[in-house]
Amino acid sequence: MASHPEGFEYRLIGEDVVISHNGRRATILRGAAARRFISDVEIGDPQELIARLTGNYKRGNERVAKNHPRNKRR
Q: Does the reported pTM lie above 0.90?
């Protein structure tokens, strides 16, 4: 079971949205993407939305991939 994403935050700087994860900048959204993000964040869970946007979320297959023969020597 995947854990709930945490540690994300966002700041509005002018018309841009700066997204950080644990204090480090992850991405910057500009233009239409920034406007869409602001409208979506008001509706849903900001942590989930930011995790999806940055690609920083668990997919549920980490344990299975760790046990795959190809990854045994890593």
A: no
